[in-house]
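User: Hey, quick favor. My workstation is busy. Could you predict this chain's structure for me?
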Amino acid sequence: MRFLEVSERAGRYVASLVETAPPTPGKGELLIRVAASGLNRADLSQIAGRYPPPPGEPEILGMEVAGTLEGSGERVCALLAGGGHAEYVAAPAGQVFPSPPPERLDPTAAAGIPEAYVTAFVNLVVEAGLEAGQTVLVHAGASGVGLAAIQVARYLGARVAATTRTREKLSAIEQAGADVAVHAPHGDFQGAIEARFGTNAVDVVLDPVGAATLAQDLAVLSPRGHVIFLATMSGAQAALDLSLLTKKRARVVGSMLRSRSREEKAALVARFRREILPGFDDGKLRVVVDSVFPPERAAEAFQRMRDNRNVGKIVIDWS
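Assistant: No problem, here it is.
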């Protein structure tokens, strides 16, 4: 089989297709013929040497795929800790779930479900206990996870505000269902949130930005609200107003999906299948695909993500 090997040289990505034997599924694993694999910023961090896969997981890049089970041809998606950017992957059975029917979702787009939508579900529902009628704030709202989180929150009956630094991405946030789309090129979003929802109105903040947004996250947060940090794109060190944190009885949570055990991921995927996946079958949820690249042009795909030009998911088509 072929898999992608990607490196960075002088600020640009270089990708090559490398031949190797297909993986042999271990105990509790299923062999998937990959039709498409989704790109994630975690891939960029792994290329930079900052985010290696957990011990025992494949060193090959790629954390989500859509394809068919070898032997049965069943259409499936899989959440992975690695190995997805290849023609075949051995996926833990508990992290494999049925792909939506092709008449509801393009098979290539299905590769954008596992990492983005399971991440959104885990952090909104499992970590923060989101309920209908509550208010959610999503930063980087036009990213793959951002657009997924907007849709999942609305699917569950919440109000949603989302931010972006790029004015041209506002329409995508609105089309995903956000009640408020905030253009925040310099990081100032508190005024827009309070103008629409009032003070202390946000129950859950989903934040991949980090240091630059923490103070305002706490400022707009409701009593007993949750700020969930997924990444630290603006930096990992920030001052924390402990007085405000205690006054609001708030929760600041760090969350990472990739490092969780296979057993924990299996339990989370099982809940996702029950509570969220039906939304794709009835058309209430959809994957926003920014662009699709063949593996021979993978370097362009990775560069597009690094340059922050994508709106939604970038996908590699292996079919």
